[in-house]
């Protein structure tokens, strides 16, 4: 072992973990060296020492490194073992923690990952970075699932400067016992960072969904690093880009559940960010969770626009019931059957005791009409139903139409108490009077249930008819107007014979590919 590390020194470095291994020089040059050297120019190596360990270098994470754009790579990792995101939300499909690196005259790392995947993460980083200098670490969001690896990055790369907002710098000192004042660069809205060919500019996004959040925009590539915005639950099974999967079928429910439960309360702040995004020529969106968007951006931005304005995606009905001995469940199922018979498609029925509240919140954001059916329990609302309604209140749901059914064997009161909570939601409307039955529905109750279903069905279809009539009016108006283009995402009309190649919809941020000529 003439030029190899001695056994004792090796064990000592291994005991220090990956940071110690790095310090001992056990990480070699990048396995992507040919590719990165082509774009990195004269970037100096961070170590001129020969690699003392001559055994086979194993980089299990190499397969999850993917090219995103010019000089830009994804080096994040997924966790399929975690059961509850934030120890609250079930994630049966896992979760990804996204991190990106840009190679130029200067190198920049954008965010890190959760501590659960740091092994994979640093294998990825060492595979792509090798011994090159890491000049900047850009922290868009300080939540620990994206910042847990910061301290180890800084140990491995003492040359790295941290770029973030002043608010994030405060949080960084709260999470980590370290003084990086000599390595800290604080930025604000509109500031820029020159890497060489790439110029980064920063967009503040407070309360989307923490107060320190910013987004980073690469002015050369048109890539927006959007922090938690435009993220979704779900592990990346090698499919980095949204167009590599059937997103609407397989990912949209988790994207909706992620937005409504994580960001849903902050609709006005999301609207502010969407307004900023409309003035930027975005060609790609790189979120911190879930797939990267490089096609059909306007469609997904349109979803965020609806959700953040608390407007329903669909003229549809969800029936949520809380039942112990089956009476309220029977009423809910009878109502759903009559709705379907009346021509309301895709009625969704949920047992509030068996469906996770995050699923119910997401569905409430999707549909236009919500039927609440609850027993009276301890002289109040059935506990899981009350929790669901309070979650709607916490997430600021608005502009929904409710119908209320209550049950009680001697003194039903749940209906009025549910109404008190839904009254607190902005823009709440109601169909019919509160429907009350005792213990289990009889034939007279069934007639009342059918009558309520008819009222709901008529309202759903009338609303759909009004929307269609408005679209028809718009179409007729378009037919009499001069030349123009219509946004297929939100309906905005651009007047003019020629749509500019770089045009961005001022309402939803859709690009020119989402416009149709009138």
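^ structure tokens above, recovered residues below v
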């Amino acid at each position: 072992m003439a030029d190899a590390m001695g056994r004792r020194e090796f064990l000592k470095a291994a005991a220090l973990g990956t940071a110690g291994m790095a310090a001992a020089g056990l990480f070699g040059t990048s396995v992507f060296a040919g590719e990165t050297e082509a774009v990195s120019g004269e970037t100096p190596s961070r170590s001129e020492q020969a690699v003392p360990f001559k055994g086979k270098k194993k980089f299990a994470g190499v397969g999850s490194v993917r090219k995103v754009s010019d000089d830009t790579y994804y080096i994040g990792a997924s966790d399929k073992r975690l059961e509850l995101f934030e120890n609250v939300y079930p994630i049966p499909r896992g979760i990804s923690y996204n991190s990106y690196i840009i190679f130029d005259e200067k190198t920049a790392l954008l965010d890190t990952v959760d501590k659960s995947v740091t092994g994979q993460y640093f294998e990825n980083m060492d595979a792509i970075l090798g011994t090159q200098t890491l000049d900047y670490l850009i922290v868009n969001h300080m939540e620990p699932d994206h910042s847990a690896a910061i301290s180890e990055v800084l140990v491995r790369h003492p040359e790295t400067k941290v770029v973030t907002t002043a608010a994030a710098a405060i949080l960084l000192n709260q999470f980590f016992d370290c003084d990086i004042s000599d390595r800290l660069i604080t930025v604000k809205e509109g500031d820029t960072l020159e890497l060489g060919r790439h110029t980064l500019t920063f967009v503040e996004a407070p309360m989307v969904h923490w107060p320190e959040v910013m987004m980073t925009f690469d002015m050369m590539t048109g890539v927006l690093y959007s922090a938690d915005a435009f993220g979704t639950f779900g592990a990346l099974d090698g499919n980095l880009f949204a167009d590599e999967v059937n997103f609407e079928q397989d990912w949209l429910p988790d994207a909706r559940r992620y937005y409504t439960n994580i960001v849903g309360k902050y609709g006005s702040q999301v609207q502010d960010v969407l307004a900023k995004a409309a003035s930027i020529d975005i060609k790609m969106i790189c979120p911190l969770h879930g797939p990267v968007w490089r096609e059909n951006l306007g469609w997904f931005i349109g979803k965020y626009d609806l959700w953040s304005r608390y407007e329903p995606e669909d003229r549809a009905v969800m029936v949520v019931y809380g039942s112990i001995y089956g009476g309220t469940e029977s009423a809910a199922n009878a109502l759903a059957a009559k709705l379907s018979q009346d021509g309301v498609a895709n009625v969704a029925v949920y047992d509030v005791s068996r469906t996770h509240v995050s699923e119910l919140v997401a569905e409430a954001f999707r549909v236009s009409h919500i039927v609440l059916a609850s027993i009276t329990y301890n002289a109040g609302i059935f506990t899981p139903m009350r929790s669901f309604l309070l979650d709607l209140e916490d997430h600021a749901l608005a502009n929904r139409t409710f119908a209320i059914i209550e049950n009680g064997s001697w003194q039903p009161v749940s209906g009025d108490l549910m109404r008190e909570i839904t009254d607190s939601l902005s823009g709440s409307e109601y169909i019919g009077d509160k429907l009350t039955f005792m213990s289990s529905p009889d034939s007279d109750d069934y007639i009342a249930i059918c009558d309520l279903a008819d009222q709901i069905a008529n309202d759903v279809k009338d609303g759909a008819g009004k929307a269609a009539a408005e679209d028809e009016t718009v179409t007729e108006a378009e037919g009499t107007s001069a030349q123009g283009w219509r946004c297929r995402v939100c309906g905005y009309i651009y007047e003019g014979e020629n749509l500019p190649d770089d045009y961005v919809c001022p309402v939803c941020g859709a690009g020119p590919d989402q416009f149709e000529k009138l």
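Residues 315 and 368 are 5 Å apart (CA to CA).
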